[in-house]
């Protein structure tokens, strides 16, 4: 598995997982970590004796309605991608973790006391990067296939937006566009 380093209870779980089998954990904010992760992933896929790597290319969990922008790093390393579409059925228990609303312990308690966690899982045909296709195009093609299979909406933005404050410049640009829509081009008719 590949993922971001966590502290607290999640960090304890991560350290225990590494003892059971190799995982690649990284600090998202460290550029040198990104290069090291890329190197380790390329070495891993070059060794045909090793198991496939489990990667969640959105880099975050979302609310089971959409597929957000995939991080391109997973698609830069080469190799074959085996896409899996997963869609949870919240009828008996909602598996979505809103980390800004619930801490890890309350989420785990909610999951463990749910009647059942039901999901549809589709193992899709393997995909490889096509001639002339860059990593972003490849990521978008895989994302689109997963969205179609799972009946999910494709979103063009990064999942990090749910936690980050939107930059003022982006807000101003949208306000200007909205103003132009309402007022028109500014001339009196």
Automatic annotation (TrEMBL):
<dbReference type="GO" id="GO:0005789">
    <property type="term" value="C:endoplasmic reticulum membrane"/>
</dbReference>
<feature type="domain" description="Phospholipid/glycerol acyltransferase">
    <location>
        <begin position="1"/>
        <end position="89"/>
    </location>
</feature>
<dbReference type="GO" id="GO:0008654">
    <property type="term" value="P:phospholipid biosynthetic process"/>
</dbReference>
<keyword id="KW-0808">Transferase</keyword>
<keyword id="KW-0443">Lipid metabolism</keyword>
<dbReference type="GO" id="GO:0042171">
    <property type="term" value="F:lysophosphatidic acid acyltransferase activity"/>
</dbReference>
<keyword id="KW-0444">Lipid biosynthesis</keyword>
<keyword id="KW-0594">Phospholipid biosynthesis</keyword>
<keyword id="KW-1208">Phospholipid metabolism</keyword>
<comment type="pathway">
    <text>Phospholipid metabolism; CDP-diacylglycerol biosynthesis; CDP-diacylglycerol from sn-glycerol 3-phosphate: step 1/3.</text>
</comment>
<keyword id="KW-0012">Acyltransferase</keyword>
<dbReference type="GO" id="GO:0008374">
    <property type="term" value="F:O-acyltransferase activity"/>
</dbReference>
<dbReference type="InterPro" id="IPR045252">
    <property type="entry name" value="LPCAT1-like"/>
</dbReference>
<dbReference type="Pfam" id="PF01553">
    <property type="entry name" value="Acyltransferase"/>
</dbReference>
<keyword id="KW-0812">Transmembrane</keyword>
<comment type="pathway">
    <text>Glycerolipid metabolism; triacylglycerol biosynthesis.</text>
</comment>
<protein>
    <submittedName>
        <fullName>Lysophosphatidic acid acyltransferase theta</fullName>
    </submittedName>
</protein>
<keyword id="KW-0472">Membrane</keyword>
<keyword id="KW-0256">Endoplasmic reticulum</keyword>
<comment type="similarity">
    <text>Belongs to the 1-acyl-sn-glycerol-3-phosphate acyltransferase family.</text>
</comment>
<keyword id="KW-1133">Transmembrane helix</keyword>
<dbReference type="InterPro" id="IPR002123">
    <property type="entry name" value="Plipid/glycerol_acylTrfase"/>
</dbReference>
């Amino acid at each position: 598995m590949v993922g971001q380093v966590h502290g607290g209870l999640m960090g304890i779980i991560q350290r225990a997982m590494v003892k059971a089998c190799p995982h690649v954990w990284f600090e998202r904010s460290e550029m040198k970590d990104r290069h090291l992760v890329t190197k380790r992933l390329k070495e891993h896929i070059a060794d045909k004796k090793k198991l496939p790597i489990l990667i969640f290319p959105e880099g975050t969990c979302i609310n089971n309605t959409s597929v957000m922008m995939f991080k391109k790093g997973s698609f830069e390393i080469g190799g074959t991608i085996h896409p899996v579409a997963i869609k949870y059925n919240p009828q008996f228990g909602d598996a979505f973790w809103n980390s800004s609303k619930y801490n890890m312990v309350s989420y785990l308690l909610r999951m463990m006391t749910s009647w059942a966690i039901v999901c549809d899982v589709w193992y899709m045909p393997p995909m490889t990067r096509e001639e002339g296709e860059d990593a972003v195009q490849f990521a978008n093609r895989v994302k689109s296939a997963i969205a179609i299979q799972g009946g999910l909406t494709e979103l063009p933005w990064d999942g990090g937006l749910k936690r980050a404050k939107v930059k003022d410049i982006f807000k101003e640009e949208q306000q200007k566009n909205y103003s132009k829509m309402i007022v028109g081009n500014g001339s009196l008719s």
